[in-house]
Structure prediction request, 317 residues.
Amino acid sequence: MTKLIALKTMSEFINFAKSNYSSQIKQQVLLFDQIGVRRLGRFIPEEIGHSNISKDEPNQNFFELKWLFENEILFDPQIRHIDLDEIHKILGENFASQYDEANKEVKRIIESGKKKGYINIKEGNKAFQSIEKLDQIVLRLISKQIEKHGDFTAVTTLSEHSYTYETPSSKKNNVIQIVINNLPLPNIETSWEKIIDYRNDPDNNKDLLNLRRWIRKISSEEISPVEVQEEIEWLQNEFQAHMKYHRIKANTETLEVLVKAPLEIIEDLVKLKLSKIPEPLFALKKKQLMLMEAEINAPGKEMAYIIKSRETFPSEE
Prediction:
């Protein structure tokens, strides 16, 4: 299965982590294979020496972040070389112009600060905003480069207002954000091992593939965010109604076989003497196959991963 990677700026990640830090990352890891955070590699070493982190009073969020980084669930997306020609070639003239202006602004503020010996708050905020714009453009560039080298799909998770100019991938980003909002927000007691095991389970992996294929398909259509949400809700209702009907049907047919079975066979079933209960055992196996077939043919099966995730994980909401 093609890997799906999310890319974030550091400031976006900090805002993202202010509340429900662990829960929000778990929610996104249910969908993404990895999350790339620009400058994360610099942030973690700096935090190691922070006064708030000690043996007596460990910072739990930091150690969780470090574990995610070491296990490559989070990573720092790198780029070897950045120049205006490459940005212009891959992203277009508008992004190249934005990058050039932001880069010049950062250099101007730094040079001015060196001369004065300090940078005031107003200039510091300008520099921060310019660096954020640089990182947004660099992440778009990285997403294109990642997709050239292997079976990867990389999307930025920037908010809609961050897109000064529309890009071909921005519709997919918007659809993905809507999908994320429909996934459960696992509570802090949910272990990371449970999240990873759930996502890697073969049956769940199949459902995740169906969901990702639907994201690619719907992203190519002219459809508004409101219509995307309505489509998700409709597909979920179709899937749940279909499966409810087939569960009732399968349970009824299985019950009929058991009721018709001789008393001694039912006694063997209760005592788990499996060799003596071919008909009831076959009925139970048939029920499993009926439900599997029903799910394969179910309308709205693209939403099975979302529905099952909600049933599996207690939510903070």
Notes: The chain has two domains: 3-167, 189-317. Residues 3-167 form one domain.
